[in-house]
Specification:
This protein has 2 domains: 7-153, HUPs (Rossmann fold), CATH 3.40.50.620; 188-309, Beta Barrel (Elongation Factor Tu (Ef-tu), domain 3), CATH 2.40.30. The protein is 32% helix and 27% strand. The protein contains 10 helices and 14 strands. The longest helix has 21 residues, at 289-309.
Length: 311
């Protein structure tokens, strides 16, 4: 993903043979894929499937709050292209853009700058100043300006509507990486660079790679996880990961530590990507080092059983 896979709106060539969709697409989850599938069905052979997205996240600009994202902008573009999109167009989001009325956003930004003949959106899509625009307004503008509008219903999994906010909640509040993966359509991943720690894990017989995040994506809830690790010398290697403050040793700062099963190599300064498979247990404080080491042994056995049962 080193080569940029999107274009800023100012560099985009306008053309009317586009089937367009608009959204933040954080996570590029199963609901987003349903929209892309509807775009494919609506497209003529010469059409370009085009996803218009925003950066930074609109809520971050309007709500004065940092938004934990499920993926970086580059990852978002990459997965949109993998799902079948031809062009990813990024609109820098700021307060000036937020103040544009809904009608003007469609006509001056989408039609005049990008162009399209069909627009496909989710059933609850809102746009324009204060979210005043909706599917009904799009249909009205489509009648006036001769473009088609398709609205895609919610994607349900076990009766639950798939959404980026639901996925974030499962990760951040519950550590339920299995349910998050079910809604995403693939395991949640997180990347970091391996930095030197205090070496305590190696002394205990469980050497760990201390992962320092390279972005501001969601950190799952504190606890112990069965994961798969990939990097320079690893390809989805079975591993156990601890996220937390290491209370047995009086820690205060949240760390992310990965112990790769049956492997002993040097990962320092390399990039590591972790694929979360299952939540194993909550982080806890032990009364003794012996009790901690005993529990770590149980964690490794539990981790092996889980990973052996999951492709």
């Amino acid at each position: 993903m080193s080569q940029r896979s999107y274009e800023i709106i100012s560099r985009v060539e306008r053309t009317t043979n586009r089937v367009l969709t608009v959204g933040t697409f954080d996570g590029v989850h199963r609901g987003h894929v349903s929209i892309i599938q509807a775009m494919m069905s609506a497209a003529e052979p010469s059409d370009r499937l085009t996803a218009v997205t925003f950066d930074p996240h609109p809520r971050e600009v309007l709500g004065h709050e940092a938004i934990s994202r499920l993926m970086t902008l580059e990852e978002r573009a990459h997965f949109l292209l993998e799902a079948g999109i031809n062009d990813v167009v990024v609109i820098p989001f700021d307060r000036d853009l937020a103040a544009i009325p809904a009608r003007a956003f469609v006509r001056e930004v989408l039609q005049r700058s990008i162009g399209f003949r069909t627009i496909v959106v989710g059933y609850d899509h809102r746009f324009g100043r204060n979210g005043e625009g909706d599917v009904a307004l799009l249909r009205m503008l489509g009648d006036e300006d001769s473009f088609s509008v398709l609205s895609v219903p919610a994607t349900l999994v076990d009766g639950e509507t798939v959404s980026s906010s639901a996925i974030r909640r499962y990760l951040e509040q519950d550590g339920d990486v299995h349910r998050a993966a079910t809604l995403l359509g693939r395991p949640y991943t997180r990347a970091g660079v391996v930095v030197r720690g205090d070496g305590r894990g190696r002394k205990l017989g469980f050497p760990t790679a201390n992962m320092q995040s390279v972005d501001d994506t969601v950190v799952p809830a504190s606890g112990v996880y069965a994961v798969r690790a990939s990097g320079e010398n690893l390809d989805r290697a079975p591993a156990v990961m601890n996220i937390g403050v290491r209370p047995t040793f009086g820690g205060k700062r949240v760390t992310e530590e990965v112990h790769v099963l049956d492997w002993d190599g040097d990962l320092y300064d390399s990039r590591l990507t972790v694929e979360f498979v299952r939540y194993l247990r909550a982080e806890q404080k032990f009364d003794s080092i012996e009790a901690l080491v005993n529990q770590l042994g149980h964690d490794l056995k539990h981790c092996r059983r889980v990973l052996n049962s999951v492709p």
